[in-house]
Amino acid sequence: MIRTERFSCSQAQAALLTRLPTPEDITKTIGLTEPEIETIVSTSGIPAGSFPIRYLGLPLNTRKLSLANCEPLLQQIKSKINSWTSKYLSFAGRQVLISTVIGGITNFWSGAFILPKECINLIDKMCNAFLWKGTLEGKYVARVAWEKVTTPRQNGGLGLRNLALWNRTSTIYELWWERNERMHQGKYRSTDSLWKRIKSMIKNKISALRPENNTAASAILQFWFSLDETS
């Protein structure tokens, strides 16, 4: 059981009515004070846990994502590339696998986090080596700079994804979702509805700062709520 919102005692009691707790259940919170956590734990009877944890394959932490947190992502990509090394793929075949399979793996993480620059550099390095040499072992000579490889085809590149740029873009989830709904489903949300959702996401992001810097986060929240009242 994971709790990331503010709960009153009555809410914690109501949560227990949904199902009986199991020995594997733990309560994890973000942005709550110690008395609030103690109230939830004593009311629910479910012990408190600590971060970091893994949820749906992604690391959850109260701090900024580190390179160590990204090790499962790097190992997954390395494992995929190593499994292709013995298949004697053509240059075009390797290009397709980087675009589709590696792109799909990084999409899952990019939609949830801003990846550390060191992690992005390591992924680019592995993809570059696999593209030009077909393996991660030994030295290789890239005939074209990676910056050019990730340039759109109409501009003379190979059209592979610029991971750093894609990562920044994909974290703007609500705008990306709205774009896809309009393009593929013909569905539209009003500007007010979209803006309210974006403001809610920003508040949640600010609230997540509290475990690291409660004073700064509280000040930012007060400022943001004051903007909300006047908007």
How do the helices and strands line up, and which of them pair or pack?
Elements: H1 9-16, H2 34-44, E1 53-55, E2 58-60, H3 71-84, H4 91-110, H5 117-133, H6 146-149, H7 163-170, H8 173-185, H9 191-207, H10 214-230
Antiparallel strand pairs: 1-2
Helix pairs in contact: 1-2, 3-4, 3-5, 4-5, 9-10
Protein name: (rape) hypothetical protein
Organism: Brassica napus
Question: What structural keywords apply?
Answer:
mainly alpha, two-stranded antiparallel sheet
Unreliable stretches: 1-20
| Spatial strand arrangement across the major sheet | 1-2
Number of helices: 10
- Sheet-strand content, in percent, reads under 5%
Category by helix and strand content: mainly alpha
Organism: Brassica napus
Protein name: (rape) hypothetical protein
Describe this structure in words.
With 231 residues, the protein is mainly α. Among the domains are: 9-50; 68-170, no CATH class. It contains ten helices and two strands; from the N terminus they run ααββαααααααα. It has helices spanning 9-16, 34-44, 71-84, 91-110, 117-133, 146-149, 163-170, 173-185, 191-207, 214-230, and strands spanning 53-55, 58-60. Strands 1-2 form a two-stranded antiparallel ribbon. Strand 1 (53-55) and strand 2 (58-60) form a beta hairpin. Helix 1 (9-16) runs parallel beside helix 2 (34-44), helix 3 packs antiparallel against helix 4 and helix 4 (91-110) runs antiparallel to helix 5 (117-133). The radius of gyration is 22 Å and the shape is globular.
